[in-house]
Design a protein that fits this description.
Helix content is 3%, strand content 37%. It contains two helices and 30 strands. The structure holds fe (ii) ion. The site of fe (ii) ion has 5 residues, from loops.
């Protein structure tokens, strides 16, 4: 096998990038020369309709050894029974409720990044390109001659334990816990383990792509800054070995056999590309006198729906930060929301749930189901002396969607479901001291 492995990333969010793994591979002054350098084929990969407004129009030009029509043969069906897609209704008979899980167990059998996906919730409808699915991945094998692309949505990967290397058509991305990466819809890749088994979370976004939220009065800086997003430089495999490409398409899986690696892009330019981001570069903005803003202040990226201010998916984090508000209850307040919240913990301890919500675990607070700090957290936060206090060594996140999140049968039956979660609020007794 010959490959050109260039290490490195280009900074910026949604930039128009250009990169080549061999000198002169990228045409200049035009996209589609009569004959490309090195005998490459030119191919456009579109992430938006051709006529999308300029600000959300996304496409890249790929210069590759074979066009993608040669990276698929006839398709046959494939089975990945734990990877579910919306609509996936009535998959179980667990009643509604506030739900929490410990880390799902690593399967006994070999699992790669595709077979190791275990979907927890689905929301919306993939057929109308609305909604999302939240999964965990439990991976103990690298993909070698196995490749994949997802026609159903972009994939936001949130590592929690162990690192992964994604070799995508447009280059290589390595991520470890504390970082995230996004692989666009339709982009072929394989995933390798960096250092032993890997576990983490996956948000499949069926709708419009993630973008950075408008900052409003915050101004031009803070929260997630564009320069901290990294897109890989071009890298390719020149590998003629029997291989298999799996495709996810409207919730079904199909396989095709090919005789080579489809990761044969030698040069590319455009703004439709994978990227990574280190969540520890997020610059939080919050309360500096009293009370605190809504958690939307911690939005890293947002995937809009057609309705203004109403996200198809928001990706929100709860990072290290100072807590300084005076005469205020500092943890999240009690609430009922129209949006549905899937939370995970990457490391440390979450301030509203000091017990039970552990790294690798999950909580689900669905549309209009009440939640908030547990009794222990309430008692402490109501009586503690309000000195400046730093929340350290903590990183939780949330996939929040306008669509109700429906549980899969796996989520309803996995052994780490905490059936006593509701009891975390039972100590919140009536404290009323008024008299008529
Ligand atoms: Fe909440």
């Amino acid at each position: 096998m010959k490959s050109a492995i260039l290490h490195g990333y280009m900074p910026g969010f949604g930039n128009d990038f250009e990169t080549e793994a061999l000198p002169g591979a990228l045409p200049h002054g035009q996209n589609s020369p009569q004959a490309c350098a090195y005998g490459l084929y030119a191919e456009q990969l579109s992430g938006s309709p051709f006529t999308a407004p300029r600000g959300i129009n996304e496409r890249s030009w790929l210069y590759r050894m074979r066009p993608s029509v040669r990276h698929t043969g006839r398709f046959g069906k494939a089975s990945l029974p734990f990877w579910k897609t919306a609509p996936c209704l009535d998959d179980h008979d667990l009643p509604i409720g506030q739900l929490r899980w410990g880390p799902p167990p690593m399967p006994n059998e070999g699992t790669n990044f595709i077979s190791g996906i275990r979907t927890m919730t689905t929301a919306g409808d993939v057929n109308t390109q609305t909604g999302m699915a939240a999964s965990v991945y439990l991976v103990n094998q690298s993909m070698i001659d196995e490749y994949f692309f997802n026609a159903d949505g972009e994939m936001l990967v949130v590592p929690q334990s162990g690192g992964l290397r994604f070799f995508t058509e447009l280059g290589r991305i390595e991520v470890t816990p504390g970082e995230i990466c996004v692989i666009p819809r339709g982009m072929k890749f394989r995933a390798e383990l960096l250092d032993g088994p890997a576990r983490g979370y996956l948000c499949e976004n069926y709708g419009a792509k993630f973008t950075l939220p408008d900052r409003g009065p915050i101004g031009a800086n803070c929260l997630a800054n564009p320069r901290d997003f990294k897109t890989p430089v071009a890298a390719y495999e020149d590998k003629e070995t029997p291989s298999e490409l799996t495709v996810k398409w409207c919730g079904k899986f199909y396989k095709t056999k090919i005789g080579h690696s489809p990761l044969d892009v030698v040069a590319w330019h455009g703004n439709y590309a994978p990227y990574k981001y280190d969540l520890r570069t997020f610059s939080p903005v919050g309360a500096i006198l009293f009370d605190h803003p809504d958690p939307s202040i911690f939005t890293v990226m947002t995937a809009p729906s057609g309705e203004e201010g109403t996200a198809n998916v928001d990706f929100v984090i709860f990072p290290e930060r100072w807590s300084v508000a005076e005469h205020s209850f500092r943890p999240p307040w009690y609430h009922m929301n129209i949006m549905s919240e899937f939370m995970g913990l990457i490391y440390g301890q979450y301030d509203a749930k000091p017990e039970g919500f552990v790294p690798g675990g999950i909580s689900l607070h669905n549309c209009m189901l009440p939640h908030g700090p547990d009794a222990t957290a309430f008692e402490k936060a109501s009586t503690v002396e309000l000195k400046p206090h730093k929340l350290t060594n903590t990183l939780a996140f949330m996939f929040e969607t306008r669509y109700p999140q429906h549980l899969t049968s796996y989520a309803a039956s996995v052994e780490t479901l905490q059936t006593d979660y509701i009891d975390c609020w039972t100590g919140l007794d009536k404290r009323f001291t008024g008299t008529p």
